[in-house]
């Protein structure tokens, strides 16, 4: 550094001082391009000098004691970990992706497809099937999905087959919304307005949605594996298998899983 | 070129900081103290660049909130820097709002500050850079440039993290940081070529932004 930039610096100074007091006059570039003399090493040197000068090395021990006391008091008042709001979540990968507009747009498309799928599935299972005559009537409610009926198994987001009692429909809605919310990387407002409102209501506030959803999804993915041996249906529920209402082919559980898998793929790509 | 890189020694402690934060979240008080000691120098420097002599008070307020919400935080050491910087910034902005009667002098002394220092080489200019002088120069910058420089250079945030703290696009923050550094360099008599037209536009921008905030 000393070898080169010293003399160069002096030359710059000479040029400056010999000028008429308008710095930068000689190299004005309307485009804002950086002139050649702005050396990368100069930047690094300047940054180091600034950091050294401005960072406060001498800390007030009393201020530290107050901070630690506040920490202790907070732990005593609330020993359990509080909910992480969006502004408290600084985990890296999500953040990075959330800041990329193209990916966000893609996520919105996926999310709207997923939500649309839920709506279609609900309409399909409630209205069209109840119009039908015959023994299907009993199974009209999605929550009453029978284990051996692939169509119904596909409509229910959770593993309806393995756990007949299941979670109530609203819970599964929430879960679906949470998945969609996760898809758009926490930018909840880009969700369908109704879905977002419902999610906010369920979470108890906009700030709480991220925490609420991670809790919901954690529970949703944890529960099926524990409750029954049908890990496959649990797996299906864990994916974005919401837009899969039309996979009615086949009559066995395996075929249902297949249908779900292909429906899932279609939902993602269309 | 144009990259505002953090000093290496700031980043180097991110691993240590992350570990301390994790232990503190399990209730380890000593670990919280470690995290405090790693974060506070940069935080205080940042606050001094924003609120001046009231930095200690604002930092105290910020730490009360940091301690209160500590259990909510999720992330690593670098994330903790960003999270605490966000809290400190909000407290600083509150503080500035409360004392709006006497707004800060930023931006009005440009002509005086633009004069190069009485040094003949880069090294002299930088070696003798005092805390007061550095803060004076940074506080003379438009707010967006000052904050971008402080967050990245003094606190050690990377571009995306600084952008999140400022709630702006990374590109805008990068540009602001770069312009701020160029301006500081010019004021210190190094990296002398600066585009005046560009600088004027920046001032205009930052004033508008400052108002809307």
UniProtKB/TrEMBL annotation, chain A:
Keyword Transmembrane helix belongs to the record: yes
Keyword Zinc applies: no
Region (Disordered), start-end ranges: 1-39, 72-92, 127-174, 221-270
Membrane-crossing residue ranges in chain numbering: 105-123
Range of residues in the leader sequence: none
Keywords: Membrane, Transmembrane, Transmembrane helix
Segments of skewed composition (Gly residues): 231-242
Biased composition (Low complexity): 138-169, 221-230
Domain of life: Bacteria
Protein name: Uncharacterized protein
Organism: Streptomyces alanosinicus
Lineage, uppermost ranks: Bacteria, Bacillati, Actinomycetota, Actinomycetes, Kitasatosporales
TrEMBL record, chain B:
Ranges for domain RNA polymerase sigma-70 region: 36-100
Record Pfam families: Sigma70_r2, Sigma70_r4_2
Every RNA polymerase sigma factor 70 region 4 type domain range: 133-184
Annotated region described as Disordered, given as residue ranges: 101-121
Gene3D superfamilies in UniProt: 1.10.1740.10, Winged helix-like DNA-binding domain superfamily/Winged helix DNA-binding domain
Gene Ontology annotations of biological process type: DNA-templated transcription initiation
Keyword terms: Sigma factor, Transcription, Transcription regulation
GO molecular function: DNA binding; sigma factor activity
InterPro entries for this protein: RNA_pol_sigma-70-like (IPR039425), RNA_pol_sigma-70_dom (IPR014284), RNA_pol_sigma70_r2 (IPR007627), RNA_pol_sigma70_r4_t2 (IPR013249), RNA_pol_sigma_r2 (IPR013325), RNA_pol_sigma_r3/r4-like (IPR013324), WH-like_DNA-bd_sf (IPR036388)
UniProt family annotation: Belongs to the sigma-70 factor family. ECF subfamily.
Protein name per UniProt: RNA polymerase sigma24 factor
Annotated source species: Streptomyces alanosinicus
Taxonomic path: Bacteria, Bacillati, Actinomycetota, Actinomycetes, Kitasatosporales
């Amino acid at each position: 550094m000393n070898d080169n930039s010293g003399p160069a610096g002096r030359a710059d100074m000479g040029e400056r001082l010999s000028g008429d007091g308008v710095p930068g006059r000689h190299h004005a570039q309307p485009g804002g391009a950086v002139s050649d003399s702005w050396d990368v090493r100069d930047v690094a040197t300047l940054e180091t000098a600034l950091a050294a000068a401005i960072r406060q090395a001498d800390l007030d021990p009393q201020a530290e004691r107050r901070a630690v006391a506040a920490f202790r008091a907070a732990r005593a008042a609330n020993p359990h970990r509080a909910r992480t709001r969006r502004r408290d979540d600084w985990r890296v990968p999500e953040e990075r992706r959330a800041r990329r507009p193209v990916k966000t747009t893609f996520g919105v498309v996926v999310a709207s497809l997923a939500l649309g799928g839920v709506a279609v599935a609900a309409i399909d299972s409630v209205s069209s099937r109840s119009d039908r005559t015959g023994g299907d009537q009993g199974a009209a409610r999605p929550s009453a999905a029978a284990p051996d009926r692939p169509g119904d198994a596909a409509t229910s987001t959770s593993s309806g087959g393995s756990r007949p009692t299941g979670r109530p429909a609203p819970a599964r809605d929430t879960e679906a919304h949470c998945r969609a919310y996760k898809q758009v990387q926490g930018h909840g407002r880009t969700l369908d307005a109704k879905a977002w409102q419902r999610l906010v209501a369920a979470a108890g506030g906009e700030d709480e949605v991220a925490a609420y959803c991670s809790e919901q999804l954690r529970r949703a993915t944890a529960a099926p594996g524990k409750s029954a041996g049908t890990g496959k249906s649990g797996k299906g529920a864990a994916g974005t298998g919401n837009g899969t209402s039309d996979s009615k082919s086949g009559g066995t559980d395996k075929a249902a899983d297949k249908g779900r898998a292909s429906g899932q793929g279609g939902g993602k790509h269309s | 070129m144009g990259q505002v890189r953090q000093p290496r020694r700031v980043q180097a402690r991110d691993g240590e900081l992350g570990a301390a934060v994790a232990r503190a979240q399990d209730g380890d008080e000593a670990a919280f103290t470690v995290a405090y000691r790693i974060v506070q120098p940069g935080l205080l420097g940042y606050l001094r660049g924003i609120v001046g002599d009231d930095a200690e008070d604002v930092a105290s307020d910020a730490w009360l909130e940091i301690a209160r919400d500590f259990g909510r935080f999720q992330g690593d050491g670098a994330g903790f820097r960003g999270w605490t910087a966000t809290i400190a910034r909000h407290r600083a902005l509150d503080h500035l709002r409360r004392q709006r009667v006497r707004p800060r002098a930023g931006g009005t002394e440009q002509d005086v500050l633009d004069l190069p220092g009485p040094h003949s080489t880069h090294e002299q200019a930088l070696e003798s850079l005092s805390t007061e002088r550095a803060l004076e120069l940074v506080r003379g910058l438009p707010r967006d440039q000052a904050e971008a420089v402080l967050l990245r250079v003094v606190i050690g945030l990377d571009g995306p993290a600084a952008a999140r703290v400022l709630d702006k696009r990374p590109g805008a923050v990068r540009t602001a940081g770069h312009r701020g550094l160029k301006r500081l360099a010019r004021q210190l008599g190094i990296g002398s070529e600066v585009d005046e037209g560009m600088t004027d536009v920046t001032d205009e921008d930052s004033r508008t932004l400052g108002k809307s905030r």
